[in-house]
Every structure is written in C-alpha cells, then in structure tokens.
Design a protein that fits this description.
Layout (H helix, E strand, L loop, with lengths): L7 H9 L19 H9 L4 E3 L5 E4 L1 H10 L6 H26 L11
Antiparallel strand pairs: 1-2
C-alpha cells in the first residue's frame, strides 16, 4: 500500500469500521471481536484436519474438533459456526491455489516425435 498505509484516510477508515485504535505490529493479526469465537475455534481445532490420500487438507473433522472445543469450554453459535466454515473454505481455497501454481510452474518440456 506504500504511502497509503501511513495515511490519515486509512486510520479514519479503520476507526469508522471498528478497527484497532493502535496499528498492529509486524506479525500481529487484528480480529474483530464478533469474529473471535470462529478464529478461536479454528485455532483450537487446528490439529483436526482431514486429509485425502495425497495429503491435501479437505476439511475439519467436526466430531474431533468438537472435543477440543468442549475441553476449551467454547460454545459456538450458528453464526460463529458459519464464520468458522467460511474460514475453513478460505484456507482450503488458498492452499489449492498454491498447489495449482506449483503444478503449472515452468519446467522442462519434452517433445514426442513419431
């Protein structure tokens, strides 16, 4: 974002939309309070991903994740669960985009002649 990142316009927009009063430091992530239960649920269930036979994440195992949430005394509302599923789908999409880019990277080309 260059100079825009340090502008008053961005600061005003952050304040208007409920952003942090102080800017996050490097390697920090700001989560809006209404999204925190979904982010917390995803973090607690981070070891409960299901994988296909090729080792690619296909989704959370909700039955096992629910055990982690229960031990952490985390109660998810239907809205929180929808947000969790949105985060889950976003992660899967981002990872698959990375796989697609790797699959189509340039490499040696072979020509088969008859």
């Amino acid at each position: 974002m260059g100079d825009l990142a340090a502008s008053k316009t961005v600061d005003d927009d952050l304040a208007h939309f409920g952003g942090p009063i102080t800017k996050p430091q490097k390697n920090e992530l700001y989560v809006l309070p209404q999204n925190w239960p979904a982010v917390n649920a995803l973090t607690l269930a981070s070891s409960q991903w299901q994988y296909c036979k090729d080792g690619v994440e296909i989704g959370l195992d909700y039955a096992r994740a629910e055990i982690a949430w229960r031990y952490a005394e985390l109660k998810l509302t239907p809205s929180d669960f929808n947000k969790l599923q949105f985060l889950e789908r976003t992660i899967i999409t981002i990872q698959r985009q990375g796989d697609e880019q790797q699959r189509f990277e340039s490499g040696p080309t072979f020509t088969i002649r008859r």
